[in-house]
Amino acid sequence: MRKYLAFFRTRFNMGLQYRTAAIAGLACQFFWGAMAILAFKAFHDTDPSSFPMSLPAMSSYIWLQQALLTLLTMGGMDNEFFSVIESGNVAYELCRPVDVYGMWYSRSAATRVSNALLRCVPVIVIAALLPAPYGLSAPPDLLTFLTFLLSLVLALAVINAMGMIVYMITFHTITPRGVRLIAVNICDFFSGDIIPLPFFPAGFKEFVELLPFSATANVPLRIYSGDLHGPEMVKLMLLQVFWAAVLIAVGKLIERRELRRVTVQGG
User: How many Å apart are CA 150 and CA 166, to the nearest integer?
Assistant: First the structure.
């Protein structure tokens, strides 16, 4: 365990060095968040009775989504892994006396956390200063905030495990672009990153909530905004635990199969 924590710490410190890239992405995140809130407000003003979330909860959901973008989306995957696979330098990774899955999982998690820390503080501070109902509201109470943090850790475990499956699949592709593009688009839609799941039609929403994608951004963001609570919250958090365990197990199985017949491209 100590060696994997060392991998996490090293990659985390490395990720904190890319401050310029993080600052450059902030303008896009503020613009996207503002446009999304104004669009949803237009729908709300048209027919408030059919709007499935309160407008303050909707705004908090979107701002927190932008603040944690690199932490909870497939777009936050580590580009270095794709690079070493595509170039053939993955051969050096396979020579290390450690489990490849554990090493890459810890490094990928560190990349997500470090990138999110660089971006989240400015977004949260500025969004919290905006007037209601356009700004980021505080959680309803301390228990809700602590539950949100727990759910956030579980969501990180799930999305990181999904990313590991994508890395392992690309061992046998000429380029990772196709697999990555498909994974990003599917996860973004079914996790609530494009349209929050409460806006999905009844029946289809309940089905999507059972999928592993729902166990990422959907759960912690709705808990923080106060939209998710009670038995439904407990059910979705238990699904987070379930999918984290299942996806990690599946990723390990794929790793064992792929590394028995790995083909090094390039080199």
Answer: 25
Phi, psi for 165 (deg, rounded to 5):
-65, -40
CA distance 107 to 102: 9
C-alpha–C-alpha distance, residues 36 and 57, integer Å: 13
The tens digit of pLDDT for each residue in 10-35 reads 666 665 555 565 666 677 888 889 99
* φ, ψ of residue 259 in degrees (nearest 5): -75, -15
The amino acid at 241: V
pLDDT exceeds 90 at position 85: no
d(CA 213, CA 195): 13
Closest to 124 in 3D by CA, of 59, 73, 217: 59
Alpha helices in 130-190 (DSSP H): 142-169, 177-190
Q: What is the pLDDT of residues 118-158, one digit of tens each?
A: 788 888 998 999 998 899 999 989 999 999 999 999 999 99
Which residues, 6 or more positions from 238, have their beta carbon under 8 angstroms from its beta carbon? none
Q: Whole-angstrom Cα distance, residue 234 to residue 238?
A: 6
Q: Which of 185, 176, 233 is nearest to 209 (CA)?
A: 233
